[in-house]
C-alpha cells in the first residue's frame, strides 16, 4: 500500500494539484508578492478604515512614492507623520489607508519589499493603538 502511495506521489502527472493562476498584472512585483501573503486574515479589520502601518520608510519618501509602491491597489490616503521639532523631517513611518479589505491584504504581501534603499515594514495598523495615540495627543 505504501508503495502505491509513493509511486503516485512521484508520478509525473502534474494535473493532480495545480495552484490557481495568479493575476500578476495587479501585483507590484512578482516573485515574493505573487505568493499568498502569510497573514492571519482574522487580524484584518472587519470594517473601514483599512489601514496599513508602514515602517522603516526612507526619510525622503513622499506620498507619491508610497502610492506608486502600492500601485494597482485602491489606496485612499497616505499619512506620513513629521518630526514636530523639524517639520521637514519625516519620522520614518507612516500609514496607508485602503478602500477595501483586499487592497489591504495585498498591501501586506509587500512587507519587506524595497522602497528606495530600504526594506519597508507593512503591517496591519492596530486601530486601538491608533486611537490611543490620538487620545494621548489631545488629552
UniProtKB/TrEMBL annotation:
Question: Which part of the chain is the RRM domain?
Answer: 50-127
Instruction: Tell me which InterPro entries the record gives.
Output: EIF-4B_RRM, Nucleotide-bd_a/b_plait_sf, RBD_domain_sf, RRM_dom
One family name in Pfam for this protein: RRM_1
A GO MF label: RNA binding
Q: Which SUPFAM superfamilies match?
A: RNA-binding domain, RBD
Q: Which GO terms describe its cellular component?
A: cytosol
Query: Membrane spanning segments where?
Result: none
Which domain of life, per UniProt? Eukaryota
Tell me which UniProt keywords the record has, alphabetically.
Answer: Acetylation, Initiation factor, Isopeptide bond, Phosphoprotein, Protein biosynthesis, RNA-binding, Ubl conjugation
Subunit structure, per the record? Self-associates and interacts with EIF3 p170 subunit.
Give a short account of what the protein does: Required for the binding of mRNA to ribosomes. Functions in close association with EIF4-F and EIF4-A. Binds near the 5'-terminal cap of mRNA in presence of EIF-4F and ATP. Promotes the ATPase activity and the ATP-dependent RNA unwinding activity of both EIF4-A and EIF4-F.
Protein name from the UniProt record:
Eukaryotic translation initiation factor 4B
Native species of this protein? Answer: Nyctibius grandis
Q: Which gene encodes it?
A: Eif4b
